[in-house]
Amino acid sequence: MTAALAIRRLLRAAGMNPTDVYHRLSAWSLRAALKEQGLVELVDTLRGIEPNLREQYSRPVEEGEYQALRELKTRGMHAFQVQMLLKAIERVGGDGITVADIGDSSGTHSLYMRQLAPRGKVARVFSVNLDPVAVQKVRDRGLEAILSPAESLDPSADAVDLYASFETLEHFSDPLRFLHRLAAAGLAETMVFTVPYRRVSRFGGWELDIPESALAETLSPEDVHIFELSPRDWGRLVRLAGWRIVDQSIYWQYPQRAPARVTAPMWRALDFEGFLGVIMTRDLKVADRYTGW
Fold first, then answer.
1. Opening angle at CA 64, ends 30 and 196, nearest 5
2. DSSP sequence for 154-214
């Protein structure tokens, strides 16, 4: 029996609705975590820039508590991503830089950068996505988007100063080779990415544990995580791919000190404890000595 199933059975035995309990505990935990990590003000700022996150989701979202919880989770994740993104932009230096947002599905981060990056720092932002619906959503907002699988993107085609990728690398079948292509052929010296945090690496694919008849109808590349790696293993992977980590942080979905820390086992069993953010610079010394390319 999985831990999640055991928890549900215990709650039902106590006369409680597991879904309601999960929603309330998650919201309590997230609010405490945002406060502890100093992200509440940034969340409010992002909400002012983009009040409605519905375009962020590829599929319709239920109303009520689930929608409110998903919005809160996404706001916290966005605040962390923007925090890392602004640090990366500052690291690139200079004015009028070009940012490629690889895997972007809505253009929301482009809007954030327009408002929050120092004046004159960012001249151009373009999104890259393999989903024509996502690309059209970005273009409908008057923003630039390229329809292409990220793995097929020609990194020498655009003079990019900063690569960004948020909750995307875990979906790639070969993130090592993808990152090496950017390092070897791209012009950007800096990249920032975030991925789900895992204490211990694992191969994903758990989304495939559904009836075979439902796979074609419900499954998309956006749904499937292939590699969910620990921070140490991500560090090894990017080193071999031609990059060197210069800054990294973890955004926790529960506080480390406040009472809501008791929700840690719940996040570990039912979701992700948090997200890893990495800023790295190109360093091909190790990659150039590897003959597997």
1. 35
2. -TTSS--SEEEEES-GGG-S-HHHHHHHHHHH-S-SEEEEEEE--SS-EE--GGG-S-HHH
Written as one letter, the residue type at 107 is: G
**Confidence (pLDDT) at 66:** 66
Collapsing DSSP states into helix, strand and coil, what is residue 82?
helix
pLDDT digit string (tens) for 125-139?
A: 999 998 898 899 999
* Tokens 């991503």 -> residue: 81
CA angle, residues 72, 40, 70, in degrees to nearest 5:
5
Q: What pLDDT, on the 0 to 100 scale, is given for residue 38? A: 98
Report the Cα–Cα distance between both ends of the chain, in Å, rounded.
Answer: 43
CA distance 81 to 93: 19
pTM above 0.85, yes or no: yes
Contact 174, 152 (CB under 8 A): no
Q: Is residue 197 within 8 Å of 276, Cβ to Cβ?
A: yes
Cα–Cα distance measured from residue 227 to residue 94, given in angstroms and rounded to the nearest whole number? 35
For 283, residues 6+ apart whose C-beta sits below 8 A from its C-beta are 239, 242, 243, 244
For residue 259 the two structure tokens come to 């009472």
Q: Is the pLDDT of residue 222 over 50?
A: yes
Q: Tell me the three-class secondary structure of 92-128, residue by residue.
A: HCCCCEEEEEECCCCCHHHHHHHHHCCCCCEEEEEEE
The rounded distance, in Å, linking the Cα atoms of 196 and 174 is: 17
- The pLDDT confidence band at residue 3, using thresholds 50, 70 and 90, is low
Q: How far apart are the C-alpha atoms of 95 and 34, rounded to whole Å?
A: 31
Structure tokens given for 86:
């602004």
